[in-house]
Amino acid sequence: MTTHPDPVRDTPEAYSAPSQPAEPSLAQPVAPAAAPAQPAPAVWTEGVDTVPRADGTPGELQPYTELGLRDDEYDRIRQILGRRPTQSELAMYSIMWSEHCSYKSSKVHLRQFGEKAPPSDRMLAGIGENAGVVQISDELAVTFKVESHNHPSFVEPYQGAATGVGGIVRDILAMGARPIAVMDPLRFGAADHPDTARVLTGVVAGVGGYGNCLGLPNIGGELVFDPSYQGNPLLNALCLGVLPVSRLQNKAAAGPGNVVVLMGAKTGRDGIGGVSVLASATFDEGSEARRPAVQVGDPFTEKLLIEACLELYDGQLVVGIQDLGGAGLTCALTETAAAAGTGMRVWLERVPLREPSMDPHEILASESQERMLLVVEPDKLDAVLKTCEKWGVLATAIGEVTAPEPDGRPGRLAITWQDHLVVDVPPGSLVDDGPVYARPMREPADLILLQADRAETLPRPADPEALRETVLRMIASPNLADKTWVTEQYDRYVLGNTVLAQPEDGGVIRVDERTGLGVALSLDGNGRYARLDPYNGTKLALAEAYRNVAVTGAKPIAVTNCLNFGSPEDPGVMWQFAEAVRGLADGCLELGIPVTGGNVSFYNQTGAAAIHPTPVVGVLGVLDNVADRVPMGFVPRAGGDHDQLYLLGETNVELSGSEWAWVTHEHLGGIPPQVDLLREKALADLLAEAARVGHLASAHDLSDGGLAQSLVESCLRRGVGARVAVPEQFAEGSMPFVYLFSESATRALVSVPRGHDKAFAALCAERGVPFELIGATDPSGGALEVHGQFRIGLDELRTAHTETLPRLFGGAAAVEVPAPAAGVAGAVEAVPLPVAQAEPVDPAEVVSEPIASFGPVPQTGAVEPIESEQADTAAESDTGVTEPSPDER
Amino acid sequence: MTARVGVVTFPGSLDDGDAARAVRIAGAEPVRLWHGDPQLHGVDAVVLPGGFSYGDYLRCGAIARFAPVMETIVDAAQGGLPVLGICNGFQILCEAHLLPGALTRNQHLHFRNRDQVLRVESAGTAWTNAFQPGQEVLVPVKNGEGCYVADTATLDQLEAEGRVVARYVGGNPNGSMRDIAAITNAAGNVVGIMPHPEHAVEALTGPSLDGLGFFTSVLKHLVGAPA
């Protein structure tokens, strides 16, 4: 579809039709308008299209155009097979060669991640695996990866988001790791746009519904609003896992004679074509019609799958394992076989089905969730099945690994359906021999004008009163406001190892209770910066994630990424993508930390309107002892004691692309802040050392909203005020405003306990990190005071900062629903309505509600699960597997 | 000899490891119990942990209630075995009719996770004797269906018999009637609590250490209890 998107855009049904029971076969030529005249459906409904039949009917027309394959790609398939593909084979090639699975547009650029990768002795698995694995001690390794589930989350917010989480979790599980945390960078359209309330409330409920039910703490993420995401919200999901080094798994289907076992949920018609139809085409009016392509998931089954898999690993019962997500069985069978160079013999009718009437090509394309493919030695099969039975997980032997060709060529994948040979292909041809395009690239025509329109020329607040108002307005703006309304819906405590979680700069998880060894994670991206300069904008995202990890006291060691862009068929978008990849690869080289995996999401575009280029970069760091972690909040002190406040780094007049320019002037233009990664590294090293020797009471990164935002957040975290003074060179005119709202990079706000300040200053000087004493915490003052400018009480700050999201998306509105109606309201909430909800009500008032009017308990309960947030999770899909890491090929 | 406290794992239990950790930190020996095994393996007390047993399908705790281990636990509890049900465990205790009332969808319809102040109303139970009556404690609350409901007569009886073990203070996170966060049975050996004391046992990972008291209480109780 990359070159002929119209047929797919206009007729998603062309592929997803078979997923409708009403439409028995693939060939319903739904879109004659866009597609060339097709033969009568009859030829397809006569029954299974077998290899012998394909041999006998070389001239039969096939609906490859609707499946998103271009003429030369179809010819290539015929050439590979020496005949026309069968219906099932055509379906398999069309999915595996889709943009989403094949990375055909991005491959040529993503190579840089490998080529420019700095040497690392920590990497146990990286490019080419389900997720990168990094060793953090002699015994332990961690694996982490972020992936997108953008398109499904717009079509069906709850399920799209829920299954985005489920997918990445299975990727982590497939590496042999126990998933231990999730994060969720989210981007939506304008906060006050009615549809944003529909998408955001559904997505947040979906992320929470799946993650909470899986027992994974959510330790951070992003929440960004911008009109460019109105029709293309971004749901990226990260999962972190930990494993003993000795338990590392791989996906190679090694050992001819070994048994191929399908484990987990039954296979249904859900999500057929989700990959190629949803994630590889641009949205248009017909998007609603694609709802059938959104997968359906079940977190309870996934929880059992996790426990069963871990038990299998520990019993050393698994030779190879791969999770099923996008491209379902097709992807798992071909990738595992291709990875080992072996062949595979599969009896398709053995696959447990939800719908017995499913055709072979549907079974192969289904994206039903909570499934894993195992390769098991025959004598261990019984033990495997017994373990699965213990956990109530379905497991079925569906095939066996076969030997490579006598001449040494890789084996073939042979699939029969009730004794009919429906597939006979070289697995590698689907996985590795997909098309690769060097698409035309051109700097967007408007970029020069955009960059010339600098925000530094905008009118700025120049007096104390205006500055005070600006502070209150900025901290209440949707992108800077308190995110508790969202994060309260996520469990951050489960598993008992969460040391830091949102709103802290980075999430910190203890991975070894005996030694205190832990990891820190942060995900960051700035679409406005990337729009103004994709190369440096991506470096800035990397720098911020790196800094956010560093301020916790951790040492950054590895990178993951999720690259969200518009259509690669637009040369301007392709240029943005290429620049972003170059920026990230160069940045990682400068910082000396490798990219371990990631994901590309193209076609985040509605009609001609693409999203801001949005590279989201994740950085992982290590803390030898999580007890040394540094929180962001100022520390309460008794007896009039206080800490010294230092601003680290240099502040320049950098307002272009800033949150202030957008909030107060709806302005986007100019050049984003300068980024110097070597200085970023010096700052990180300083923070790690200062944390280790106990110089830091708190440390907070400066980014969106500048110093003002960091001061307010550090004050409100634990209710400790502060008094600061603007340095002389920023004293005049609008310079105090610049000091407070400039978004210059490589800066952090730290509080240093008295007695440590001299040593800390000496350390900064020694490390060559610019530092400035700007004031002190004021534990008893109850206010934030900027000398000579303004003094704002913490209560006023808190009110401004916390009321925005509840006002926009409803907080305790349900409290006002008469109790008996709660059930009904719950049903509504599952797919929330964009209605302005009532102001939050002190939940304490709840008890005065006549709740006794609840129906008899059984009734109340009986209604419950249907709309209970965890039962809502009856659906999932998976970018996890569907999107082999971009770095992976 | 150290007390042995069983922690049951149902399919979908999530905070079982955390409950076991809390038991260990409190100074007892955690014993993992399996839903399919009716044996209690000689434990002195049992914790039903938080989570989403059986995915909360049908109704929270409605399926777990029929697990083989539950039949044994119900009998033992009626015989005086100390049982603490946390969150999903509370829901299971209600479904098993060891405790009255039910837990329904939060009134605001959202899952809510926050650090919550509780007032211990009854220090007379096997799981709260380490506290002072009226003592306020800070523990995490995290649930989607923690709204305690019962008919007025039941509520009045719970109040009259001092069986309201803890109440929410400074805001009711889920709409529970009369701010009820925890209740006990008539004998005081079975306690159901919606918030998560097992997540307030370490300074590094919890909002306080207040949760530890619930676990040290049962040890105190066991020492004092006739063998």
Q: Care to describe what's here?
A:
The complex is a heterodimer of chains A (889) and B (227). Chain A is 35% helix and 19% strand. Chain A is built from 33 helices and 28 strands. In chain A, the strands form five sheets. In chain A, strands 8-10-7-11-9-12-13 form a seven-stranded mixed sheet. In chain A, strands 23-25-22-26-24-27-28 form a seven-stranded mixed sheet. Chain A is globular and about 90 Å long. The model of chain A is unreliable at 1-45 and 812-889 (pLDDT under 50). Chain B is an alpha/beta fold. Chain B has five helices and eleven strands. Chain B has helices spanning 16-26, 68-78, 88-95, 152-160, 212-224; strands at 4-9, 29-34, 45-48, 83-86, 102-104, 112-120, 136-143, 147-149, 164-169, 180-184, 190-193. Chain B has a nine-stranded mixed sheet, sandwiched between helices. In chain B, helix 1 links the parallel strand 1 and strand 2 (29-34). At the A-B interface, helix 11, helix 13, helix 31 and helix 32 of A face helix 1 and strand 6 of B.
CATH C-level category of chain B = Alpha Beta
Major sheet of chain B: 9 strands, mixed
| SSE arrangement of chain B, N to C | EHEEHEHEEEEHEEEH
Return residue spans of chain B where pLDDT drops below 50 for at least 5 consecutive residues.
none
Beta-strand proportion of chain B: 25-35%
Strands ordered across the widest β-sheet of chain A: 8-10-7-11-9-12-13
Helix share bin of chain A: 25-40%
How many strand elements of chain B? 11
Architecture (CATH level 2) name of chain B: 3-Layer(aba) Sandwich
Overview features:
heterodimer, A: 889 residues, alpha+beta, 7-stranded mixed sheet, 33 helices, 19% strand, globular, disordered C terminus, B: 227 residues, alpha/beta, Rossmann fold, 9-stranded mixed sheet, two-stranded antiparallel sheet, 5 helices, 11 strands
